[in-house]
Amino acid sequence: MLQRLKNLIHSIREAYAGPAAELGGAAASAARNGAARAASRIAGAKGALLALGALGAAGYLVYSHPPMQSVGRGEVGVRANRLTGELTEWRDGSVLVIPGLHDLRLYSLRDQSYRPSQASRADGPAPLQSVEGLSLGVDLTVRYALDAAKVAAVSKSLPDNIGGEIVEPAVQGVIYKTFARYTVREIFSTKRAEILQAIESELKPKLAADGVALKSVHMGKIDLPADYRRGMDALLAEELATEKMRYTLELKEKRVKEIGLEGEADKVRREKAAEASGREQIIAAKSQEEAMKHVLPFKQRQIEQRQLEAEAEKVARIRSAEGSAQARRIEANGEADARQKLAEAEVFRLERVGKANAEQMAREGALVTSHPLLIQKALADKLSDKVQVIIAPAPTDGSFIAGGLLGASAKPVVQSARAEGR
User: Fold this and answer.
1) Which residues share a beta bridge with 146?
2) Strand-strand pairing, 93-96 and 68-71
3) pLDDT in tens, 46-91
4) Using alpha carbons only, what angle is made at residue 335 by residues 329 and 336, rounded to the nearest 5 degrees?
5) For the chain, which end, N or C, has fewer CB atoms within 10 Å of the first or last residue's CB respectively?
6) pLDDT computed for residue 412 by the predictor
7) Which residues contact 113 (CB under 8 A, 6 or more apart)?
């Protein structure tokens, strides 16, 4: 907006800043065009200012009446549409509330208490009246809460102060009428539970009609008139003394009966104890006699059993000695037979080994005789792990190939080997 105003001022200055000689008719037309442009720019600036003002007003309206409102825990929100009359329930969370279109009312679902303080004292501003016409005070506590199932249905008729405009009139209308049907003595002592039951049964439907659920009714201290309290205290004291005397006489009478019963019980107990002692002695004697009848044969059988055990031990020892001797003889015979078998096996082995060696030597002699070069091969095999390469000329006379290595003594050895072959 400021930039537009600056541009407008700058264009007006440019329109009137030229020399007068050069203007003529062109200057007049330029002045008219500049005025028109200035007027249009001023109109645009006014429209922008109006739009900015409308935007600011809308922002202030949103700030003062936010469209999003929250419903806390333990509360219920009822949103009403002003155009259609539609009601919507909302629990924990945020609710869209458009100003001018929606109305949102929050109700607490927590338990609340109401205590009629004016009727709590007998000398208070509005005490309760008994059937005798005496004033008395009662400390009452009424616990109630909104019925979550009926909040939407009764939200249009619910006032802001539910406790003062719904609960208080209903409670007062019920309790004054209920207490007026009982005497002070009944209210103070014998009919408390009945009175509470009557109050609850009459108060619950009244509150339910307005969407309020009655939880409980408690009765505390009862404030009686001073004169009546003194008379009541004296009457109660006399009644307590009478009751105490009656209970004392009954207790003494029961005590006498108890002493007589205890004597009879002691007599019967002693007779039973003597009878039981005699029976115990008789039973003990009979038991001992019966036990001796069984003990003597048992002792006799023990003696016979020990004799039989001694005889059995003697026979067992004899049998054990005979078995040991026989086992030793069998072991000796077995050892002798085993040694003889070992000797025969050793002789047989030596005989067979000798025969095998003789046969092997015969075969080797025949083989060497038939193939004399085997001796050279055997020598080469013997020297193969010590000598890697052996270079020797082949003998022309067919003698031993290693004769040149062994010297002159090799030839007689080959000749003697040939002679043995022959």
Assistant:
1) 212
2) antiparallel
3) 666 666 666 665 555 555 556 677 676 767 777 767 777 677 666 7
4) 90
5) C
6) 47
7) 141, 142, 143, 144
